Amino acid sequence: MKTCFIGSVTQTFFTIFQLNGLAYEPDPASITAWETYSQLPFTFTPETVAPTVPVQCLWCMTTIHAPSESYILFRMKDAPLKCASCAQEFTASSYSVKRVLNDMRQFMQNQSKFVKGTVLDHESGKIDTIAGQRDMNLLLCHSYEKGRKDMDEIFQSADAAKTAEFHWPKFQAKLLTLILSLTRQKLMANMRKQTMGRVARAYRNMVTPLTIDLVAAVVRQRTFTAKMVGGAVNWSDPVVVARSTMRYRQFLILMEREPTKFLVPTLDIDLNWHTHQCFPLRYQQYGFKHTGRLINHDDAASDTSLGTGFAQTAKSWKKHFNEAYSTEDPSKRYLTAGRVTMGVIFPPYMVFMAAKAHGLKKLKGKGETSGGCSTHDATPRSKAQRDSKRGVAAVFLAAARLEAPVRAGAGHLVEAEVAE
Q: Helix 145-160 to helix 92-109 angle, to the nearest 10 degrees?
């Protein structure tokens, strides 16, 4: 079983590396298929992107044709857009609040219209509409009078706001107050613990009907790709490739043994992880069989979370396999600016951190083991990459047009597709 696993991943690696690198030219059939399906040119430039992007105002339901530059700032910098019909001003944050509240209101009127994040069971990988309905009924359709009034107040706040002031943090604070109130009345005991977190991830700052920001994911993958081809790992060496697949197998075993830990991969492990996800059904089945859940590859985690996770991964790796995890010093990632500042304010915490950092230093390995997914960038960005903001903007606008045809009414179907 282990030999088959390593062999199949290694074979996939060498299939990928048969491409001619930067000299690779797509075949005409691929170009035709892309342009036919997307109605967009195969090669994007700022000149080939339309000057406006359609955005539906969720307050008056008219379509705004936002200038491309304004739309980019709206998506990437949370800058406001303004509806010419109703004068409503909104940011990506306040727009996403309106989206989730509209879907909640729709559910209250018709319970076959599901709220995103509620119907996919991450432990079985199956659609569970009954559990999704139950969770939203507990939150929205109860007999507790104060709870109903609190929810009505939340709806009214989003409806009445004429500026972008009712943003996600305010909404989240009000919703948390409601949930605590319902919990004290023992009305939330049967709700699945992860439901509200999944709802938040499906909507927060999302301005399309999808449950993942595909544009942001593409931008993150540019950094990932730069690391992989930058020379930090010698992928042309079959020994390196074989060893990396073995280390990925160990990483999966670590996931089985440490199911509650946030584990951060090294570069060689991370490319194997991405390769594994190229086979989504097998990847899903492996996760359910060996870890009892769908293994989530979270490439949007904060630097602090990644630093702490990398240090914990190095410690767990040493514990279970009695070998160093990476040549990178885990203590450097653990000692974040926030922790150091806290140590200055509270000296006993500094003593605790110093002792922990000293222990982490001992986990540093020797040799050529490359370390850290987002926590280790051994490849400085080239001048061409630093100057490619116009190219990013073109991709951003093109992706926005691909997202637009998705219908909001199929929320549970979109969620299931993304999860696979």
A: 130
For residues 214, 217, 218, 220, the Cα torsion angle rounded to the nearest 10 degrees is: 160
The string of DSSP letters for 73-121 reads HHHHH---EE-TTT--EE-HHHHHHHHHHHHHHHHHH-TTSPPTTSSB-
Please write the tens of the pLDDT for every residue from 207-218: 988 888 888 888
3-state secondary structure (DSSP) of residue 127 = strand
Pairwise CA distance, residues 227 & 35, whole Å: 30
pTM to 2 decimal places: 0.69
Q: Residues in the chain, how many?
A: 420
Q: Which of 205-219, 319-333, 345-359 has the highest mean pLDDT?
A: 205-219
Q: Which of 255, 277, 336, 268 is nearest to 302 (CA)?
A: 336
Give which of 376, 360, 357, 358 is closest to 306, Cα–Cα. Answer: 376
Record the tokens describing residue 319, joined without a space.
């514990």
Q: What is the DSSP letter of 408?
A: G
Question: What's the pLDDT tens digit per position in 182-193?
Answer: 999 988 888 988
Q: How many helices (H) and strands (E) does the chain have?
A: 19, 4
**Which has the minimum average pLDDT: 260-269, 329-338, 380-389?**
380-389
Q: What is the longest distance spanned by two Cα atoms in the chain?
A: 67
Residue 140: in which H helix or E strand, if any?
helix 129-140
pLDDT: is 24 or 259 the higher one?
A: 259
Amino acid making up residue 277: Q
Give exposure, 191-213, as e/b (b: 16+ Cβ within 10 Å). bbeebbebbbbbbbbbbbbbbbb
311 - beta bridge partners?
none
Quick one: pLDDT at residue 305?
79
Mean pLDDT, residues 92-99: 94
Instruction: Give the C-alpha distances (Å, rounded to integers) separating 79 from 201, 205, 326, 342.
Output: 20, 12, 40, 32
Higher pLDDT, 296 or 138: 138
Token pair belonging to 177: 């107050």
CA of 179: how far to CAs of 135, 144, 295, in Å? Answer: 12, 12, 28
Q: Rounded CA gap, 329 and 361, in Å? A: 6
Query: In terms of DSSP H, where are the helices of 21-91?
Result: 28-38, 68-77
> Measuring CA to CA, which residue among 311, 315, 316, 355 is closest to residue 334?
311
pLDDT band at 59 (very low <50, low <70, confident <90, very high): very high
